[in-house]
Amino acid sequence: MLVTMVDAPADEELLARLEQAADAAADALKAQFGSEEPAVGAYLGSLREGSTSVTHLFESLLPGYRGWRWSVVVAGCEGQDEITISEFALLPGPDALTAPEWVPWERRVRAGDLGVGDLLPTPQDDSRLVPAHASSGDEDLDELMSPIDTGRSRTLSILGRAQAAQRWHDGLFGPSAPMAVVAPKRCSHCGFYVPLQGSLSVSFGVCANEYSADGRVVDANYGCGAHSDVVVEPEAAIPPKPHLAEGVAELVEGVEIE
């Protein structure tokens, strides 16, 4: 047997009576606060919620809730004069100040947030990592590490390595950095450049120049003014010209010396 649910036709007389119950809704709302500081402001209008209920809206005067609205639902039945206050709530209006959309903790953490003593758990399904016994996708690295027990349960995955490479390439020590744009030469030909191992060695290394990006991973196409091939041509020393004092000579009488 198929049962079809249909909405009951609206009782215009009942709804009109409910829409005129704004004063009753306001009185019921104010009664909740007793003699405390007024919390109910101006009447803002009504909304029909169905065939037997209407919501009345009032401005909120509660401190800290500017733009919020009191919502009072009144209901009734066809053929009865009694009106029921069903519920009321404080809801945000279009101009209300509300909290931002909730974001899970693991998505709120940003680079640089980790402090001394902080713990940042890594999810078991972290796509940046793979089990240590699995292939990392880097043949040179796998060949190097195969006979060695590193003691690590997980290592960098192909995706994790690609993401790191992209960050380094786009970061402060990438080829597009302001320092690199005006640099005379690239890091790949610098004596202070120490290439990484594995597949990353083609594009990245560590700077060993204490006056530049010392200890940082730099792109091979990064550059700075402290390149090892930057030299200053010595200029030939030019001897100073003899100084001739020009002035007025004063003649004095000689003095006999005994």
UniProtKB/TrEMBL annotation:
This is DUF3027 domain-containing protein. Residues 120-145 are annotated as: Disordered. It comes from the Bacteria. InterPro entries: DUF3027.
